[in-house]
TrEMBL record:
<dbReference type="Pfam" id="PF07731">
    <property type="entry name" value="Cu-oxidase_2"/>
</dbReference>
<dbReference type="Pfam" id="PF00394">
    <property type="entry name" value="Cu-oxidase"/>
</dbReference>
<feature type="domain" description="Plastocyanin-like">
    <location>
        <begin position="34"/>
        <end position="147"/>
    </location>
</feature>
<dbReference type="InterPro" id="IPR008972">
    <property type="entry name" value="Cupredoxin"/>
</dbReference>
<dbReference type="InterPro" id="IPR011706">
    <property type="entry name" value="Cu-oxidase_C"/>
</dbReference>
<comment type="similarity">
    <text>Belongs to the multicopper oxidase family.</text>
</comment>
<dbReference type="InterPro" id="IPR034275">
    <property type="entry name" value="CuRO_3_AO-like"/>
</dbReference>
<dbReference type="GO" id="GO:0005507">
    <property type="term" value="F:copper ion binding"/>
</dbReference>
<dbReference type="Pfam" id="PF07732">
    <property type="entry name" value="Cu-oxidase_3"/>
</dbReference>
<dbReference type="InterPro" id="IPR034273">
    <property type="entry name" value="CuRO_1_AAO-like"/>
</dbReference>
<protein>
    <submittedName>
        <fullName>Uncharacterized protein</fullName>
    </submittedName>
</protein>
<dbReference type="InterPro" id="IPR045087">
    <property type="entry name" value="Cu-oxidase_fam"/>
</dbReference>
<dbReference type="InterPro" id="IPR001117">
    <property type="entry name" value="Cu-oxidase_2nd"/>
</dbReference>
<dbReference type="GO" id="GO:0016491">
    <property type="term" value="F:oxidoreductase activity"/>
</dbReference>
<feature type="signal peptide">
    <location>
        <begin position="1"/>
        <end position="23"/>
    </location>
</feature>
<feature type="domain" description="Plastocyanin-like">
    <location>
        <begin position="377"/>
        <end position="511"/>
    </location>
</feature>
<keyword id="KW-0732">Signal</keyword>
Length: 539
C-alpha cells in the first residue's frame, strides 16, 4: 500500500468512526415569534418585522448534521413564510419555505420547521420569502459550524461575528408592494444598513493581536455591495459552504443573496476603525457604516471612509474569477473538496436562462425565457402529493430563451435525478442580475461579457471553480454553472433581486428521485391552503 493509499485508509477509518458516533445527531429547538415593531435602520422610525423582538432576527448557529426544529408563531396580520438561503434541505423541499413548497403561516398560527443541516458547513441567512416582507426585516444570520472531528483549513478564530448588509428603503413594505403591483419600480434605495443600522451604530469588538471570523451576507433587496474595513485586510476563507483559496482582499463585492466568511486580524494601532458597505454600480453611491473597536481603543474612528473600488464591472469580474475552491481543504466531510472532479463530468443537458423585463397586461413584469412566474394558489408540493390537477404542468418553461414578449405561467421545469447539467444565465439587460438555486450548490465555471456560445466553454474553470448557491451575472454578460441534480425535490430557481423575483423572474425545477432516494413524505404538520385546504397529511 502506497503512502497516499495509507492516508486514504486512515481517512476512511476516521470517517467510519465519525459516522458511528453520529448515530445520534443533535437536536436543536427554537421558538420564534414574529411581530411588527418599530425599527430605525435609517435613523427614522418605521414598521419592521421582528423575530423574538429582534431586528435583525436571532442568529441561528448550528453544527453540520444537527436536526433543527424551529416553531415559528406568526403574529403579523398577514401570512408569513421563512426560507433558508443556501440550506440544501436534502430530500426535504417541504421545509424550504417558499410558496411552491409550503403554505404561508396564517396570522395567529404557527408552523414548526424540521430540517437537518445535512453535510453542510458555511455561512447563510434566513429571510421572509413572501410578499415584500424582506423589505421590513425578518431576516437573520445562519451559520453551520464544522463538526469537531472535521478540521478547518485555518487556525480556530478567537471569535466570530456576523455582518448582515443590505440596501434599505424607508418606505413601508406594504407600500413598496403596492408600487410593484401597480407597475411602479422601487427606484434607488434610501441607504445601506449593517446589522440593521445605517450610520456607525453597529460595533464589532476585537482584542488586539487576535484573528476573528466575520460572516457577511447581502440580505438586501436590489443592490450589489462592496464591503471593507479601514486599515485591515480580509482573508477570504469560505463562500456559501465552500472553503476557498485563502486570498487576501482590501474589499469584497457581495451581490444580493451572497454570503462569505473572512478572517480579520486586529493588527493595527488600538483605536476604532470604520467598516463600510457601499452600493455598487449606482449613482449616487450609498454607504452603511459600522465600527471595528479594539478592546483597548483610546480613539474614535477618524479619517475618510476607506474608498471602494473605482473601476466598475471589470474589477468586480476579475475579483469573482479569483474566488476559487481550495481543493485540499475539506468541507462537511473528511475527504477533500477537490476529490469531487466536477470538471471531468460531461453535462447531459444545457439550459440557457435569459432574463427579461416584459410589459404584460400593461404592467412591468420580469421573466425567464419569456415566462413570468405566477405563484400558485396551492403549493406545487401539495398539488403533487394529493394529485390535484390544474395547479401546474411540467415543461411549462423551455430550456432556451424564446423570442417575443412574455406571458404569465406557473412555470415548472423537470430535472432528471442524478444528471449533471450546465446552466447558462444569459443577461442581455444592462443591469446586474443575481441568481439563486434552492436545494443545490453549483460550480461557477465561467462568466464573461457578451453572448454565451459553445465556444465559451473553452474558458471554463474545470479545475477549482467555487461551489456556491448564488451567482451574479454582470450586465450584458453570461455566467455558466455546472451542477449535479442529486437532491430530489421541488426547487425554486430565482432572481435574488427582490422586485424581479416578486414580479416573475423565478420558476421551479422538479427533480423526482428514485425509490429509496426520493423525497421524504409530507410532514405530519404541513399546513394546508388553496386547493389542498381540508386535506390531511395522514389517513
Ligand atoms: C404549533 O405549536 C405547537 C406547540 O405550541 C405544536 O404542537 C404544533 O405542532 C405547532 N403547529 C405546527 C403546524 O407545526
Ligand atoms: C487550503 O487548505 C489547506 C488545508 O487543507 C490549507 O493548509 C491551505 O493553506 C489552503 N490553501 C490556500 C491556498 O488557501
Amino acid at each position: 500500500m502506497g503512502f497516499s493509499q495509507r492516508i486514504l485508509a486512515v481517512i476512511c477509518v476516521v470517517w467510519i468512526t465519525a459516522a458511528g458516533v453520529r448515530t445520534e445527531d443533535a437536536y436543536k429547538y427554537f421558538t420564534w415569534t414574529v411581530t411588527y415593531g418599530t425599527i430605525y435602520p435609517m435613523g427614522v422610525p418605521q414598521q419592521g418585522i421582528l423575530i423574538n423582538g429582534q431586528f435583525p432576527g436571532p442568529q441561528l448557529n448550528v453544527v453540520t448534521n444537527d436536526n433543527v426544529i424551529i416553531n415559528v408563531f406568526n403574529y403579523l396580520n398577514e401570512p408569513f413564510l421563512l426560507s433558508w438561503n443556501g440550506i440544501q434541505q436534502r430530500r426535504n423541499s417541504w421545509q424550504d419555505g417558499v410558496l411552491g413548497t409550503s403554505c404561508p403561516i396564517p396570522p395567529r398560527r404557527n408552523f414548526t420547521y424540521k430540517f437537518q443541516a445535512k453535510d453542510q458547513i458555511g455561512t447563510y441567512f434566513y429571510f421572509p420569502s413572501t410578499l415584500l416582507h424582506k423589505a421590513a426585516g425578518g431576516f437573520g444570520g445562519l451559520a453551520i459550524a464544522s463538526r469537531s472531528v472535521i478540521s478547518i483549513p485555518y487556525p480556530t478564530p478567537a471569535g466570530e461575528y456576523t455582518a448582515l448588509i443590505g440596501d434599505w428603503y424607508k418606505t413601508n413594505h406594504a407600500v413598496l408592494r403596492r408600487w410593484l403591483d401597480s407597475g411602479r419600480a422601487l427606484g434607488m434605495p434610501n441607504g445601506v444598513h449593517i446589522n440593521g443600522r445605517g450610520k456607525g451604530l453597529s460595533t464589532f469588538k476585537v482584542d488586539p493581536g487576535r484573528t476573528y471570523r466575520l460572516r457577511i451576507s447581502n440580505v438586501g433587496l436590489s443592490t450589489s455591495l462592496n464591503f471593507r474595513i479601514q486599515g485591515h485586510k480580509m482573508k477570504l476563507v469560505e463562500v456559501e459552504g465552500s472553503h476557498t483559496v485563502q486570498n487576501v482582499y482590501d474589499s469584497l463585492d457581495l451581490h444580493v443573496g451572497q454570503s462569505c466568511s473572512v478572517l480579520i486580524t486586529a493588527d493595527q494601532a488600538p483605536k476604532d476603525y470604520y467598516i463600510v458597505a457601499s452600493t455598487r454600480f449606482t449613482n449616487p453611491v450609498l454607504y452603511g457604516v459600522a465600527l471595528l473597536r479594539y478592546s483597548n481603543s483610546r480613539q474614535p474612528a477618524s479619517g475618510p471612509l476607506p474608498p471602494g473600488p473605482t473601476t466598475q464591472i471589470d474589477w468586480s469580474l476579475s475579483q469573482a474569477r479569483s474566488i476559487r475552491w481550495n481543493l485540499t481543504a475539506n468541507a462537511a466531510r473528511p475527504n477533500p473538496q477537490g476529490s469531487y472532479h466536477y470538471g471531468l463530468i460531461k453535462p447531459a443537458r444545457t439550459i440557457t436562462l435569459a432574463n427579461s423585463a416584459p410589459i404584460i397586461n400593461g404592467k412591468q413584469r420580469y421573466a425567464v425565457n419569456g415566462v413570468s412566474f405566477m405563484p400558485p394558489d396551492t403549493p406545487l408540493k401539495l398539488a403533487d402529493y394529493f394529485k390535484i390537477q390544474g395547479v401546474f404542468n411540467l415543461g411549462t418553461i423551455s430550456d432556451y430563451p424564446r423570442g417575443g414578449g412574455g406571458y404569465l405561467q406557473t412555470a415548472v421545469m423537470s430535472g432528471q435525478f442524478r444528471s449533471f447539467i450546465e446552466i447558462v444565465f444569459q443577461n442581455d439587460e444592462n443591469t446586474i442580475q443575481s441568481w439563486h438555486i434552492d436545494g443545490y450548490s453549483f460550480f461557477v465555471a465561467g462568466m464573461d461579457g457578451g453572448q454565451w456560445s459553445p465556444a465559451s466553454r473553452k474558458g471554463y474553470n474545470l479545475f477549482d471553480a467555487v461551489s456556491r448557491s448564488t451567482t451574479q451575472v454582470y450586465p450584458n454578460s453570461w455566467t455558466a454553472v455546472l451542477l449535479m441534480l442529486d437532491n430530489a425535490g421541488m426547487w425554486n430557481v430565482r432572481s435574488e433581486i427582490w422586485a424581479r423575483q416578486y414580479l416573475g423572474q423565478q420558476f421551479y425545477m422538479k427533480v423526482a428521485g428514485f425509490a429509496g432516494q426520493d423525497e421524504y413524505i409530507v410532514p405530519r404538520n404541513a399546513l394546508m391552503c388553496g386547493r389542498a385546504r381540508g386535506r390531511h397529511t395522514r389517513p
